[in-house]
Amino acid sequence: MIGLLTSFPTYCNDLKQEFDETCLRFIKNRRNDNRTYTIHPNETLETLQKQLKTKADYPRQNNEHNALDDARWNKKLHEFINNL
Question: What pTM does this model have?
Answer without folding.
Answer: 0.70
